[in-house]
Amino acid sequence: MLIIMKRGASEKNIEDVKGFIERKGFNAHISKGEIQTVIGAVGEKVIDPRDIELLEGVSEVIKITTNYKLASRIFQEKDTIIEVNGVKFGGGNVGTIAGPCSVESFEQMDETAKQLSKVGVKILRGGAFKPRTSPYSFQGLGEDGLKILRKVADKYKMAVVSEIMEISQIPLFEKYVDIFQVGARNMQNFNLLKELGFIRKPVLIKRGLAATFEELLMAAEYILSGGNSQVMLCERGIRTFEKVTRNTLDLSAIPVIQKVSHLPILVDPSHGTGLRDKVAPMSRAALAAGCDGLIIEVHNKPECALCDGAQSLYPQQFSQLYKELKKIAPIINKKII
Amino acid sequence: MLIIMKRGASEKNIEDVKGFIERKGFNAHISKGEIQTVIGAVGEKVIDPRDIELLEGVSEVIKITTNYKLASRIFQEKDTIIEVNGVKFGGGNVGTIAGPCSVESFEQMDETAKQLSKVGVKILRGGAFKPRTSPYSFQGLGEDGLKILRKVADKYKMAVVSEIMEISQIPLFEKYVDIFQVGARNMQNFNLLKELGFIRKPVLIKRGLAATFEELLMAAEYILSGGNSQVMLCERGIRTFEKVTRNTLDLSAIPVIQKVSHLPILVDPSHGTGLRDKVAPMSRAALAAGCDGLIIEVHNKPECALCDGAQSLYPQQFSQLYKELKKIAPIINKKII
Amino acid sequence: MLIIMKRGASEKNIEDVKGFIERKGFNAHISKGEIQTVIGAVGEKVIDPRDIELLEGVSEVIKITTNYKLASRIFQEKDTIIEVNGVKFGGGNVGTIAGPCSVESFEQMDETAKQLSKVGVKILRGGAFKPRTSPYSFQGLGEDGLKILRKVADKYKMAVVSEIMEISQIPLFEKYVDIFQVGARNMQNFNLLKELGFIRKPVLIKRGLAATFEELLMAAEYILSGGNSQVMLCERGIRTFEKVTRNTLDLSAIPVIQKVSHLPILVDPSHGTGLRDKVAPMSRAALAAGCDGLIIEVHNKPECALCDGAQSLYPQQFSQLYKELKKIAPIINKKII
Amino acid sequence: MLIIMKRGASEKNIEDVKGFIERKGFNAHISKGEIQTVIGAVGEKVIDPRDIELLEGVSEVIKITTNYKLASRIFQEKDTIIEVNGVKFGGGNVGTIAGPCSVESFEQMDETAKQLSKVGVKILRGGAFKPRTSPYSFQGLGEDGLKILRKVADKYKMAVVSEIMEISQIPLFEKYVDIFQVGARNMQNFNLLKELGFIRKPVLIKRGLAATFEELLMAAEYILSGGNSQVMLCERGIRTFEKVTRNTLDLSAIPVIQKVSHLPILVDPSHGTGLRDKVAPMSRAALAAGCDGLIIEVHNKPECALCDGAQSLYPQQFSQLYKELKKIAPIINKKII
């Protein structure tokens, strides 16, 4: 942290700031310039920069270290590669996850999984507990949903990802699920994140609607600092003033995250746009930008879906898209599975 | 819901839409205009309008009912008045809550509460479990914090509000706390909201960083629909492109919410601005706009605070502000306590 | 500007950076710390910090001077007070401007001005050239509108403010108008701003829909640097994800601007909310937060207005509001006219 | 437009609304449902829906026609193809524009153009008049810049695009420029747009920082309605809360615009990200999403650029990118030149 003193700051001001940061557990390193004095605060403690800004004679306070450590490329230079059921995310590999928004019935899952499996998809998604804006909307099948998901996945030799909504569901998910998903609305449910640091299965964490890249990485840090190193990040659109699309899918997340972090960054073009006919173009775009994975909603009969049918692809649309993706991948030296 | 058909929509298109919405549990009411056909879908079910928009011949789908019912003025015309320790929120009453961001020690709480109590504040705030962006930041004193809060409040005959972070903490909070606070980051932690519908103490729910007014009311609806009618809403700033202030405090929340809902709407100018010297002007502004309550951070020694000291008022600043507020209230026919 | 070098930056890296900024016209001031080297770049030139960030060994670049100078409190400590027709803005004075969105006819202006004048308003607003999103909307009466505005204002001894849209209109506005208004959509029409630096009448510049406080001050700087010191700023709402209100009125603009700049900051609650019944609460709020002026839309028959009638007050509503404002002003030591 | 009456609206309310919209020049078409009455307002006039919402008994007003006509696919189903110097935009063709942010010298332009020309680029960009946030920043070379641009372009048989900032510059631009560019900050400079409707050269209009897709199309409508049918749209990033990237590049613009409009939609990944190392991934993404053109900043020596060097590619980086783009194009049935 750097503390920039005002031009006319007195010796006493400088001493007071020095004393303040030392009491907070930092080493002070004073550098007197011709124009302004700059005080470096060196240490591992976390401090609110605004507290220093309010001291007399201080002009500005600047953080020069990132708040995340374990998630950072400085901590680990090489890409984290996460492998589930033979599918790899990261390190030049692009993993694909597909399936409906929510588990509705055995038939729906069976039909969808059969078709996805034929195309080559090996990880099946499906929500059993649904975070819905309205208490009057379909809330998911609960454990029954997880059972169906598992049964169908086993039948087609697929792995399973589903969204967890609270700590008490962890034992249940341990039983049925291969990848734990944390939804956008729970990205800063810190208690849940802490507990997910103690499991030993991959966690897929989605960017919150108003979360910065740094906050997404800090959320990952909660899980990593618990000892679980298998964290995947997922861009799924942020909330902006534009309302034609459900969210604004921020594909710059891909190069930005890949520069500063070793964790795989996936893209969810289904929630990111909310509109079926935008899913294929944005999936291709995500891959061309170099994403480490895609999670795409596919439903055997989207027009009958209980949730988000409007953003689900028909299986044949997905199949067509998947062919295009396979052609784009080698151009940017990626392997897609 | 109204379904606007395209100009050239065929009879078959219209019949198909009719069939679709009837299968979804709605009554269809067709009105053929010279230009376009409009189909009214009447019913209580929740449906995703995008599903209908994808049917052939459909131009647009419009929701004409709000998604919240119990929170609406249509359901209850008169203001809900919530009374805690003699302090009223709503119905022309402006309640005041004050205290530090987090409980740090008995001395800190005792000193702060003594001073607030002298000024006339009867509800004390203080966080025991803190939602922090970084896992390395101070996370609160936990149950010890709640104990201190209760002890100090009892000493000065004050009531207590504190933030709950997960379902398993409910019994603990029942023991120590008079008002349950749900933080901005948990506004859409639907499982927690549902459970808070079963308690019988007031819940203060803060607007999420990217939450619309409607979503805030839907979050309240989760609590109300569980049977707990004592819900207070709180505007605390939304996330925008402007970074000088920590958030953008959206005071239009006051007249907007008061028009459509009977629930009290409070304002938190401390989180809303993040800067101590902006708290007093924005508190006065909130009151002049007609808010039903204020929740203000006050700390006996803000410069030593472990969390958010930079946005906490000194007790004497609060005292001065409170005098101004008492002068403004009668001008807009409000009673402030 | 401070250039923070990476931990392992070499001597050569440091020399290269030094050379680079010296070639750009800055003096380099190197401070080698135990951990990192910091290079201060001192000078008046403007440089894009990203150019330096791309040099080898550089970790981060930080601007420590504001980009605006003449608009800053550092340049001028005392409030700028702008006086028009006996009405003062700034320095403890709150000026009031009122009138319809656009000039529609002599009768409309005459009737509206008569009523405003009775209440005590001395500056009349009215658009003659209207920036409309659609080319098919009413575009204003043009010079005829300015003539009407002037004639009516003279009749009631009022001053006049109207929005200018392009450079070629300056001579016309010089003839009819006392305060030049620059609309939100033209806040960064830099060529227009430059020319307005050469006139000698006050300019009221509105914050753009996506403009930061700093950009608003930079826009003012364009005018100030041309030699025109009579600049008033105006908060009128920014664009956010919330769509119930037309814009999100950011009242924190008031304390934020007043801290860093000596220029008066006004508030336009009419455009800021877009809804008539929100105008009075937000006007009171703006005043309670300490604004230096208000600009409020009032129309003799809002339901017949050709533009923005929905956000215009009826004269009697304005009269009632004005009474409340007069009671609030002395509480915060302000004089309202 | 549809006017939804409240459930208990009286006959008189309905008659009053009918009278109101008829006086405004619409035909009223009343449809009485069991639950609610809906009034259709048919006509070409533009009206502010909020004016009707304020009438007694009205619950909601819904626009069912888009505000743009000439820009719409309903008006023209087939893609508009714009051809400049043999390069086509639209109708399956992806045109490429490249060059530095601003014209700095003959040498700089000559060197850059030579290299671009070798790769196959046939349209050269370069700013002569620069819209800068600060009045103290480099403002461009003016007419001298246009002369250099033209001279260099002629030497390498390239066409030229440059940004126009005000009406008075039109004759100058007519002389030197093949495509007129309107910058993001001027997207709603309606007077300039109107005048550009009268020229007969293509206009490239960039999306404003806070402009919705509809507003971008309305801006195009201003130009189209003047008789100039050669309009190209350009996504260049919107302003959001995320600050790591300069703007948030919204690639969903591509499928969204292509669905509703026949105009070509280009992407500017340089301003969209503001960071050189993000330009290539986002260019590939834009193409994979199906854009009709790309405009990319390339500078012979970005580290010496007077403006935006940090987001400019080196010529060899561009050359590498261009090869990748040529491989992606056929996968989505596009031709890139």
Helices and strands in order:
Four copies of one chain form a homotetramer.
Chain A (H helix, E strand, L loop, with lengths): L1 E4 L5 H13 L3 E6 L4 E6 L6 H5 L4 E5 L19 E3 L2 E3 L3 E7 L6 H14 L3 E3 L17 H13 L3 E6 L5 H7 L2 E4 L7 H7 L6 E4 L6 H12 L6 E5 L17 H8 L4 E3 L1 H5 L2 H13 L4 E5 L17 H17 L3 E2 L1
Descriptive terms for the model:
15 strands, alpha/beta, 337 residues, homotetramer
Can you tell me about this structure?
The structure is a homotetramer of 337-residue chains. By secondary structure, chain A is α/β, with parallel strands linked by helices. Helix content of chain A is 34%, strand content 20%. Chains in contact: A-B, A-C, A-D, B-C, B-D, C-D. The interface between C and D is large, with 52 and 52 residues.
Overview in brief:
With 337 residues, chain A is an alpha/beta fold. Helices cover 34% and strands 20% of the residues of chain A. In chain A, strand 8 (123-125), helix 4 and strand 9 (159-164) form a beta-alpha-beta unit.
Say what oligomer this is. Answer: homotetramer
Q: What Rg of chain A do the Cα atoms give? A: 23 Å
Number of DSSP strand runs of chain A = 15
- What is the helix/strand order of chain A? EHEEHEEEEHEHEHEHEHEHEHHEHE
What is the count of DSSP helices of chain A, taking H or I runs of 4+ residues? 11
